[in-house]
Amino acid sequence: MGTIKTSLREKIGYGFGDMASSTFWKIFSYYLPFFYSNIFGLRLDQVAVLLMVTRIWDAVSDPMMGIMADRTSTRWGKYRPYLLLMAVPFALSGIFLFTTPDAGATVKLVWAYVTYIMMMTIYTGINVPYGAMLGVITDDSDTKTVLSSYRMFFAYAGSFIALFSWEPLCNLLGGYGTTLGWRNSMIIVALCCLLLFLLCFRMTREKLHTVSTVSVGSDLKSLLRNAPWWILIGAALCSNLFNTVRGSTAAYFFNDVIGGEARLHLGSLSFLFYAGLFLSIGEVCNMVGVALAVPMAGKLGKKTTYISSFAALIVLSILFFYIPVTQSGYWWMLILQVVISIFTGIISPLVWSMYADVSDFAENRDGTASTGLIFSSASMAQKFGGAFGGAAVMWILAAFGYNTEAGAVQTETAVQGLKILMSWIPAAVSALAILIVFFYPLTKKRMEGIQEELAVKRGLVGDAAQEVAVEAEAAEPEKKLWMGLPKAMRWVAAVLAAIIVAEAVTTVALGTDKTATVADAEVVE
Asked: Can you tell me the mean pLDDT for 166-195?
C-alpha cells in the first residue's frame, strides 16, 4: 500500500480540473455534430470526415504532449504548470470553435478544420498533464481511485450544469437555432472553465517527484511492450465510444423521434421532455455511479467491477430499442437513462485509476517515469472514441437517409436508424469492452505487490514517506514557468499563441454570421 495521503482540499481542487474539461467535452461530443450539420451548415459526410481527420493529428499530438510534460521541470512540478499555461487558450479556442464566420462555403469549411484541430490541440495541452497529475499526487492505488472518483464526480456535475442549461442558454442569448446563440453561450461556459482550471492549479500540489532514468526512445519502447496499456486503451476506447454514440445521437433522436413539444406529466405538473433534460439527468446519475465505484472496486476489484458494469449495459441498451414513443414510453426512457448512467458513472473513475496503475507497472518493471506519456494515451483514447462515435453517427444517419433540411419529416428508415444508434450499437460496444478487459492482468493483489516494490525504490518507507511528500515540490529546480518548459514546448506554445491571434483577427475581419438560423444556414457544397 502507498504512504502519501491527500487532503479534502486537494481532492476537490483536483475535481475542479475535470469539471472544466468535461464541461467542454460533453458539449463538443453531444452538440458539436448537430451544430456543424444544422447550424453552421456542413453536410453530414463533411462532418464525419472532419471528426476523423483531426484524429490523425491527435495520434501525434497526444503522445508528444505526454513526452514533453514528463520532461518539464519547474518550481510547480512537471504537470501542474500546464493548468496555468493553457487555461486562457483553452477558453478562447472553445469560443472560436462555436463562432460562425460571415463568409462563403469554402472559408467556413476551412474555419471549421482550423478551429476544431486547434481546440483539440489545446485540450491535449491541458488535459494530458492534468490526468498525469494523478500519478504524482499520491502513490497509493486505492487513493488514486478515490481521487479519480472526485474527479469524475465534479466532471459529471459540470456536465450536468452545461447540458441542462445549454439549450435554454442558447435561447436566452440569441436563439437555439441561431449561430449567435451558440457562440454567446460558449463565451459564458468558457469563462467558467477558465476559473475552474485556475482553482485546480491553486488547490493541488505534486507530492511525488519522479525522474525518468531512460531516453525518450526507451519510454516509447516500454510503452509499446506494455500489455496492460494496450488492453486499457481498447477498454477506454469502448467506454468513450459508448458514451459518444448515445450522447451525440440524443439531439437528433429528440428532434426527430420524440419531437420538440413532448412533455412529461407528473400529476398536475408538466414539463418539456428534451435532449438537454435527458442528458443532464444522466450526468446526475453518473455522479451516483461515481460514488458507488470506490466501494465496489474495493470489494470486487477494478477489473470485475468494470466487466460487471458493461454486462448490465448490454441488457439495458437493448431494452431501450423496444420502448414505444408514448407518454408512458417517455418515462421508461428516462428510467433506463437513469440506470444506464449509474453504470457508466461506475466505469469512468475506474479507467483513470487503472491508467495510474499501468504507469506504476511500467515504472516498476522498466524504470520509466513516463506518467505523462501513459496518460496521453488516455486522452487519445477519449478523443478517438469521441471521433469514431461522432463520425459513426454521421455515417449511419446518412446511410439511413436522414434529412438535415429544416422542418424535414424523417422517413421510417431514418427513425429506425436513430433507435438503433441509441440501443443496439451501444450494446455491441459493451460486449466488445467485456471481451477486451477480460485479459487485463493488473489485479488488486498484483498491484499491492507492485506498490510495495515501488515504495522501496522511491525511498517511501516509514517516516521518510511524508518527508518526501512535503519536500517534493521544493526538490524541483527554481525555474520560472516559461524556462522550465522543454525547448520544443516553448516553440509549440509560441505557435499556438500565433494561431489564436490569427483566429481573433480573422473573426474581426470577416465578422460573425449573426442572422443564420437552422432554416437558412448555408450548406457547404
From this structure: 91
The separation between CA 485 and the C-alpha centre of its own chain, rounded to angstroms, equals 25
Distances (CA, A) of 9 to 143, 153, 242, 271, 462: 14, 15, 32, 38, 25
- Give yes or no for a contact between 229 and 381, defined as CB atoms under 8 angstroms apart: no
The one-letter amino acid at 186: M
CA separation for the pair 507, 111 (Å, rounded)? 10
Say how far apart CA 118 and CA 339 lie, in whole Å.
Answer: 36
Which residue type sits at 99? T
- Over the stretch 185-233, which tens digit does the pLDDT of each residue have? 999 999 999 999 999 999 999 887 766 556 677 777 877 888 998 999 8
Residues 14-37 pLDDT 10s: 999 999 998 988 888 778 888 998
**Type of residue found at 349:** P
- φ and ψ at 35, to 5 degrees? -60, -50
Distance CA 82, CA 128 (A): 9
Amino acid letter for position 155: A
Q: How many residues does the chain have?
A: 525
pLDDT given for residue 519 in this prediction:
40
Q: Note the pTM of the prediction, 2 decimals.
A: 0.73
Provide the 8-state DSSP code for 272. Answer: E
CB 363 within 8 A of CB 454: yes
